[in-house]
Amino acid sequence: MLMPELKPEERLIVALDVANHETAAQLVEQLTPAVSYFKIGLELFYAANRQTAQLVVASGAKLFLDLKLHDIPNTVSRAIVQLVEIGASMVNFHISGGRAMLEAAREAAERRAAQLGVPPPLLLGVTVLTSLAAEDLAAEGIALAPHLVVEKRTRLAWEAGLDGIVCSPQEAALVKEVSGGRLFTVTPGIRQADNADDHSRYTTPAVAIKGGSDYLVVGRPIYEAADPLAAALAIQQQIKEVMLV
Ligand code: C5P
């Protein structure tokens, strides 16, 4: 799909990586309407079931459900129907689940969204977890270098009709190249220059946008800040400045 023109403030997705609904709800209240996209991952989804997801959707913000689905096509199709019903705008899958799984998921998402009269969620692929090194892939029987696995899986995602890829800013250019610029990129590992947390490689918001990242996922630098709203606004301002250049 062609990327719709994104406003600078829509490019920031705040990761609600907290352990309970109350903390997440407080963050959503503090950050909306300045922040218009939130991500819920496995921890909060398991802790709060649908409660926080529904709150995000009801707030008018968009929801990225980062649940990294990976199962047989029938199971993933049924799961994605549930996520469409929650109102997710973005969901993701391990591309290693295979072409049939990805295609079945896309068809199921489109069908359920059409029935509900809502836009289908953007479907994102996860290529290779950044925690895996060449030795880990080799232990699974994958002899290719990680960057070649990333390339193959990106191509598979594109052929299966996914919309985008979760990737490091360093991989954004490859994703654009494989898809003629039509897969969009969602990149974590964003930090200001003075704070890397546990990211061995990180990128500032400006460098990520210049390098081809469409959406930036930011967690700790916002939810651990003394003033989360100020931290989010500062990142949005940096995105704006680089887009004006
Ligand atoms: O706190 P921080 O900004 O590092 O949060 C990054 C977010 O991006 C987390 O929610 C994490 O699950 C997610 N992530 C990811 N893929 C990676 C690394 C982090 O989706 N390779």
Describe the protein's architecture and organization.
The structure is a single chain. The chain is of the alpha/beta class and 245 residues long. It has eleven helices and eight strands. It has helices spanning 21-31, 42-48, 51-58, 73-86, 99-116, 134-139, 146-159, 172-178, 205-210, 220-223, 228-244; strands at 12-15, 37-41, 62-69, 90-94, 122-126, 164-166, 184-187, 215-218. Strands 1-2-3-4-5-6-7-8 form an eight-stranded parallel beta barrel, surrounded by six helices. Strand 7 (184-187), helix 9 and strand 8 form a beta-alpha-beta unit. Bound molecules: cytidine-5'-monophosphate.
Strand content: 15-25%
Q: Could you say which structural class the secondary elements and strand pairing correspond to?
A: alpha/beta
Kindly, what is the distance between the CA atoms of the first and last residues, rounded to a whole number of angstroms?
26 Å
Topology pattern, helix = H, strand = E:
EHEHHEHEHEHHEHEHEHH
- Which sheet architecture does the biggest sheet show? 8 strands, parallel, barrel
The ligands bound in this entry are: cytidine-5'-monophosphate
Strand order of the largest sheet: 1-2-3-4-5-6-7-8
Please state the CA-atom Rg, rounded to the nearest Å. Answer: 17 Å
Low-confidence stretches: none
Q: Give the number of helices.
A: 11
Give the number of DSSP strands: 8
Percent range for helical residues? 40-55%
What do the pLDDT scores average to?
94
The backbone outline, from C-alpha atoms, is globular
